[in-house]
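Protein kinase domain-containing protein, pasting as requested.
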Amino acid sequence: DASGHDQREWLPLVLEQLHAQPGHFLVELVMERCDMGNLKQATLDGAFSPGAPGNGGSRRAAMLALVRTAREVSQGMCHLHACHVLHADLKPDNILLIAEAGHPAGARALITDFGLCAALEE
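Structure tokens follow.
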């Protein structure tokens, strides 16, 4: 999968933690922990300011991290549109961030809250 972890490794552990049993239906939502919160709060907290962890300490590096995050969001939106999905509520509150040391922006961006989305005609 995209995270680099093999599903065969972690799925049995998750099912065990959820007390799943063969033959019984189980409905659970398992989501990634977005340790940096949403884009709005991260920006207000200074995550994209010079000196913030992971951005190299310079103003240029901080701006580059923000631009890379915006690019990642726009790539996600392009993917949605290619799948004929209209998000209809894109805003900084609906972009969640996961800190990743090797990521070019220092964090991976996830588009969330599809409550107003619509399927587009092909």
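Note for the archive: The chain is about 35% helix and 10% strand.
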